[in-house]
Automatic annotation (TrEMBL), chains A, B:
InterPro entries for the chain: HTH_LacI, Lambda_DNA-bd_dom_sf, Peripla_BP_I, SBP_2_dom
Protein name per UniProt: LacI family DNA-binding transcriptional regulator
GO MF annotation: an example: transcription cis-regulatory region binding
Organism: Pedobacter kyonggii
PANTHER family with a match to the protein in the record: LACI-FAMILY TRANSCRIPTION REGULATOR, LACI-RELATED TRANSCRIPTIONAL REPRESSOR
Keywords carried by this UniProt record: DNA-binding, Transcription, Transcription regulation
DNA sequence: TGTTAATTCGTGTACGTTAACGCATGTATT
DNA sequence: AATACATGCGTTAACGTACACGAATTAACA
């Protein structure tokens, strides 16, 4: 139960196989210079003893650092969303730094594919042991993944997933369900014949499928429950407040909207508009950003849906660490919880 | 920015101080056998170089294990709540096991102080480096903490806090606010003159202040918002279903209750009763247990409030690890997020 | 002054692994 | 037959720290 004291090491393996520890070491790292026969014998003994290398000794003896590449969007004034994953990444980095692991970070611009490609090209794969990547640009990412696969460099995705690749794991949201949940929360408040407005605010075309997926979830709820509310939708392709305000004004002039679902963190712009025009409507949006929080507390936003951006970064790095250092693999798909933030629990939220 | 290569070790310190590494080692562990003069000199150099011992080498060279004592309630049939913290604890244990840390667990019975004392007495403090404890029984815990303080053994609290002690940190809920939040959620649904019922189900007297704190938060919300709803309350001191059902029946006969707030995980019993009597009322309770989850999905429970029991255990152990091994301290008070679980997001919840 | 006992310190080995170095063999090339 | 070169392996010095052992120095006392 508690005492598996007799931890064997290379010495014991060597003794049993009648070879030197050098040879054992060679097969452990499958380097060349061992005959098939002895290699098999040693492998068998390793198997039999269920040998676990002592990682302390290993890292101590090996002077080379382990390097993880981190490829994520930069935090723009456009959105400070990516600050959070970065914080998580840096926390993890701090925790594993004592074990000789360092990070190399590559930031790309969410609005420009070219910047992504540029960063990718800058990476020297020959001195990188693992990769954490937010694969926003699908095609370009896939080209990169193929290179990684060739070199057998493990990688994990955060924030968005690409199917059909050998990623170690994915840490991020399940978008559909978050839209579905939003609809449910909305239903608590609206009446039978209320009109609902879905608002997409984004000029980042490549992110659009993100928003769409949430919208699908949202609409599905109404369909499944057979609710008859009118659901309007507006795409706002400029993110500055003036443009948003004007767009909303147009809609509101022609329709009597009583609840709004904003599909991303831009909900604060809508809240601001409602505030200024003194219109009180139910409002649901995404992400625990500074501006959103302000409107949440002040009452303009009813609910924020949030999916632990920081944790995505933290866990992503940790998954790489567990794999590279301890050869442990965890779950492949790690959907973040879909958190509901209100003015009452927001102070305790861990982003 | 990135390269603080020149990591100094005892060797360098010894060289600068014109002593041997043995002497340096002695002052590092402040053992005896070093003259004050050389000791001061070495200390000064350590300071100057901001020497950080290499923990890998340290743990490798030191054959002794580090032992953490874990003192928490056992999972009873009464409640399987404590299974979750335990899971978190065991996950953390798995992660730090490679670094020579082992756990000794002491389970006590929530219903019996004596069992707590009994477990405490069983612990041999001389071979324990740190303690994780759920200090449910305050007075008895305090006696124990004094002993720990004397031996300078660090400890962290989970689940409930005791003020005025040298605990490294606390990981657990802020109860008042979770009651407050529940009230807010309820307000979305109830009408002005609806009657509300608060239900306490517990025969564990010592846990009672937990429940009370939530009730206070709940009531405060109604007071602050100046809501005029009638709030009834019932204490149910037996936890078996029959007793709960009978108690509820009595209340419902005399009052027209339209929403119920159950102050702990026993909410499933209430849900079951509502189900059987075909009564539909808004229902809010606590904790992501198997039974609760079932009623949540099926629609009898509207919201579950949950505070990451697993994470409490995980983070508690990790805090001890960071302190004992890396001499790092984190925040003292770590209130868990107050999570809102509905049928729509429950599948993604991480307990 | 010599003897003894503290006190203060240096040396050596160990922890389990890595990896450079080098020594035997065996096989192919002139 | 002499030379070259590859293959298969053992030896050994690190990595940074812990700690036992014993040597040197000093203090104490006769």
């Amino acid at each position: 139960m508690e005492g598996n004291k007799e931890l064997v090491g290379v010495k014991e393996i060597a003794r049993r196989a009648n070879v030197s520890i050098g040879t054992v070491d060679r097969v452990l790292h499958n380097r060349t210079g061992v005959s098939k026969k002895t290699k098999d014998k040693i492998l068998a003994i390793i198997e039999e003893l269920a040998y676990q290398p002592n990682i302390l000794a290993r890292r101590l003896a090996s002077k080379k650092q382990i390097v993880f590449a981190v490829i994520i969007p930069s935090v723009s004034d456009e959105t400070d969303y990516w600050q959070e994953p970065l914080l998580g990444i840096e926390q993890a980095a701090g925790e594993i730094a004592p074990y000789g692991i360092i990070l190399k970070k590559y930031f790309y611009d969410l609005n420009h594919k070219t910047s992504f490609v540029q960063q990718i090209d800058q990476i020297d794969l020959s001195d990188i042991q693992a990769v954490l990547i937010a694969p926003i640009f699908i095609e370009e990412s896939e080209n990169f993944l193929i290179k990684l696969d060739k070199r057998k460099i493990p990688y994990v995705f955060i924030n968005s997933d690409i199917q059909g690749h050998n990623s170690l794991s994915y840490f991020g949201p399940e978008l559909y369900q978050s839209g579905y949940l939003s609809a449910h929360l909305m239903k608590y408040v609206i009446k039978e014949d209320d009109t609902i407005l879905i608002v997409n605010i984004s000029h980042e075309i490549d992110n659009h499928h993100h928003l769409l997926r949430k919208e699908q979830g949202f609409r599905s709820y109404f369909k499944e429950k057979d609710l008859k509310n009118t659901i309007l939708k507006i795409d706002i392709v400029q993110t500055d407040y003036q443009f948003v305000a004007t767009s909303l004004q147009t809609v509101f002039k022609e329709n009597n909207v009583s609840a709004i679902f904003v599909t991303n963190s831009r909900v604060s712009a809508v809240a601001k508009y409602l505030n200024q025009t003194n219109a009180r409507k139910m409002l649901i949006g995404f992400d625990y950003t500074k501006e959103n929080l302000q409107f949440l507390k002040q009452g303009s936003i009813d609910f924020l849906i949030c999916q632990k951006p920081r944790e995505q970064g933290y866990k992503g790095i940790m998954a790489l660490y567990q794999f590279v250092v301890h050869a442990k693999t965890g779950e492949k798909n790690n959907f973040m919880p879909i958190d509901i933030i209100t003015a009452q629990n927001c102070d305790f939220y861990i982003n």
